[in-house]
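chain below, 242 aa
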Amino acid sequence: MSNLALSVIGPAELIEARACAANGGYSVTGVGPLWIHGEARCGSLLMAHGAGAGHDSAFLQALRDALARHGVQTLSVEFAYMQRMKAEGRRRPPPKVAGLVEELRLWRDHMSHPSLPPLWLAGKSMGGRVASLLAAEDGAPGLVLAGYPFHPPAKPQSLRLDHWSDLACPTLVLQGTRDPFGRRDEVEGYTLAASSRVHWLEGGDHDWSPKRSSGRHQADLIEQAAVTVARFMTEHSAVGAA
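prediction:
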């Protein structure tokens, strides 16, 4: 979706749009593009995309649709480098992760409001790493990580877990069992945050696509993941209210 198609609104109007579940795309003055999808019956996720594809990747669109069916609202943002990449029509690598954390922090601050449900952080792959770094630095009501990049493919020694000891919020990892960024046999040997839970999507790769020979389908794993997210958020919202 081109940014030209987005409705221009201010930060105050953005809070109202989130509260009213005014689904659609917005260009938020002073911040950037945002897409709202679904009603927050179970909660809201501030969702960051992966390194090579933006908010409109087929995977994230399918995941947002599934989450909306189960009462989870997604507030999807696109990092500045991805906006430039689309405008220029050429690929570019993401900047240093610290800069992306600052971008996500700005969005979180604009999207959070005492009158609204707590805003959980979420992300696909690199976006999940960014969300987890922000949660480790500032805390968060909760964290949902879709295909976390525990290490680069074929480099299992280069772990991205240094900040996990600082994660204190409820953390749900949704990981394909054959994800090259962290397979089940690898991840089960890691020491993760005590507050974290890993839900395994049998046969899924980094985008939760199983092998054809398995008889499984990506859509089924996405649906399973969405159900798990809704239950996890509901469970921890109830704990927080108790």
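Residues 151 and 159 are 5 Å apart (CA to CA). The mean pLDDT is 93.
thats it, cya
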